[in-house]
Amino acid sequence: MGRRPTDIPRFIRISRSIGRTLTKIGLNRERRLLLWAAAIGMTLAVVALAFILPIKWAERAAISWLHDHPGRAALAIAIVPVLGALACGVIQLAFPVKIRAHGVSSVLYAIHRRRSQLPATLALRTWFGATAIIATGGSAGPEGPIVTIGATLGSIISRFLRVDPRTATTMVGCGAAAGLAAVFNAPITGIFFVLEVLLRDFSLRTFTPIVISSVFAAATVQTLLGTQEPLFGVSAQAVSADGATALNIATAPAFAILGIACGIASVFFVRTIQACETAFSRLPIPRWMSPASGAAILAVLGILNIAFAARWLDFGQGLMPPFYGNGYPLANAVLDPAFYHRETALAVGALLIGLAVVKCVATGLTLGSGGIGGLFAPALLVGALVGGAFGSMGELVPLLQDVGPTRLALAGMAGVVAGSTHAPLAGAMLVYELSREPSILLPVILVAALSTIVARLLERHSVYTAELAALGVHIGSTTDMLSLRRMRVSDVMLKDAVFVQGSASAHTLVSLAETKDDFIVLNDEGGLEGVVGARDLRMALVHPEALPLLQVRDIARISTRMIDLDMPLDQALELVERGPLPVKNATGLIMGVITRSRIMRTWQRRIERDS
């Protein structure tokens, strides 16, 4: 008995009505996806402003307060981060989610294990928790949270529209790309981050909606603010005036060495966060109190900074420790050519290396203890510090003097972001879009590529997939996806075809099912009529008394197509989502049956062979 219209939830009726209306005016499913991508981009721009502007106001207010009340600075620096972390713990308690991973890792988990289904509570938990952490001095950035918020919004919209799983994944990517593009005013970065890190899919069907969403998000932010400056980021206006040369044969070795150094720094960054996560997970305290314990240790570092180093470490934020917050004031200082002098080259280089180590530890304490925040900002700062240290010490080396410490600092930012995320294009494009300096593009691509290579050699997992690996979830790389597209159905060992007549009694399948579980149904003329898979048979066995009354065609999937032997496996994998399908050769002869499990086993063997 069919369901009456009143039995269908109201939001489903609304989404169906919208779909029918759009179809009538000529917007098919693909065109509608582009329309929704633009809508997601513009919506995320407003959401990004609502999320980030209060954080920026809180940071400015904190710096101003510390400047006006230097005598109370130590007390504030010790207490405020702990209070923020406690608030974050309470928020996580108030908004529980079933996904065990955090931040961008939770988005990855949902895409690859939960059919891109992200709960709305994840966005609220991330929004309020990240605000509590970042606004009170936690060593984290807002970029990861806005990616999570955007991805969740895309998932909510996909559920409202009742789209298929693949389209839902694309809409999740649209939300994530729009969020990152809105924060940095860097649409190209948002595109490549989603394609490299989240979706690992560069197909045109995925690429186009994500481009539209990312561009619309950046354009909306620029329109609302009336400026092209990013909401968060660094100011690299002095780069073009530092007199340094771009990439050439003479300067390439310097950037190559920096790429290797950034790869090593990336691994240190990732492993520091992993070590902190392991250490805090073993503490005998409630989970919601864990962020406060990390903040307490961070506060100790802040007090030590005030006691022994505040007079030398003023980078535009007064008594605020340079490793608190997102770290962009320190990054801006490192990008200033006036920061470097030949007379103090070694001392400045050693100082920057020390700050890079402390920033890694501070980020590990904040996020490894369970705090909510992003890793982009800390990675950018660590990269700037490593590159700046390399450039400062290079003032004493004739070969490196032609490059300039500012460009090395910029290239270092790309290197550590790329190495820690295993996303060289996203890392390079981020620095390029932030600096808006065309001559820096080739050097940052070189550094990002070498850093990623070194990081992957030393550490198999990125900063995002490491958490999933600890949970026993392993996600293939973009290379793995490429191998799936290059393989053909002919590479899979097919199941033997078992033919049954559609007019036969369905009860005959019960005896056949003792040794076989997939059947090809033929019509009276001997042609293909449908397929009965193990799942179809199980559904029929729910009422076994009815089987003698049914024919095989009554339980078969009639709308079935045959797959060619030369079809790419990624397309075949999508087609067998609902059940096994017959495979034909060039003459139309049925060769056997292909299933999802057989495709996955073949793919896994290829990955293991090539790794």
Task: Please describe what this structure looks like.
The radius of gyration is 28 Å and the shape is elongated. It has helices at residues 10-24, 29-68, 73-94, 103-113, 120-135, 143-161, 165-184, 187-199, 204-225, 252-281, 290-308, 328-334, 345-368, 376-393, 398-401, 405-421, 424-435, 441-458, 465-470, 478-486, 508-512, 534-540, 552-555, 569-575, 596-610; strands at residues 499-501, 519-522, 528-532, 563-564, 581-584, 590-594. It contains 25 helices and six strands. The protein is mainly α and 611 residues long. Strand 5 and strand 6 (590-594) form a beta hairpin. Helix 2 runs parallel beside helix 5, helix 2 (29-68) packs antiparallel against helix 6 (143-161) and helix 7 runs parallel beside helix 9. The strands form two sheets. The protein has a three-stranded mixed β-sheet. It has a three-stranded mixed β-sheet with strand order 4-5-6.
